[in-house]
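ok trying this again, last paste got cut off
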Amino acid sequence: MNKKLENSLLFIWLVSLVATLGSLYFSEVRGYEPCELCWYQRILMYPIVIMTTIAYIQKNARIAITTAVFSCIGGAISIYHYGLQKLDFLADSAPACGRVPCTGQYINVFGFITIPFLAGVAFILIAITSFYMIKQLKEDK
């Protein structure tokens, strides 16, 4: 594995680790109970930390295909969740999410930064880096 792929894998690991620790901070330290869509995003983010840790140790850049799939699905959920929070026409028809409504905003920094926004940024960064890695793998063949 060349240095570009190694650094890219390390970047994906770092982004996913920060996102994972951030979500745990919000739920375990701040006491914010995650809604159903937040759980789906966590289900897709947390394994990326484990997968990229193992892939980095094994020097296996082919994990980028898996991280691309996880991040694209997670990103789509994050974008939808953010839309539920910020777009009235989506919020009005939002499905019931259980005890915590998916339209709730525990944080709202600068009027647009919410928890799903932060998750979406992480998923997008991981997706872009994953596609870059896939391209590099094809060029190296």
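PB: full thing came through this time. The longest helix spans residues 3-29.
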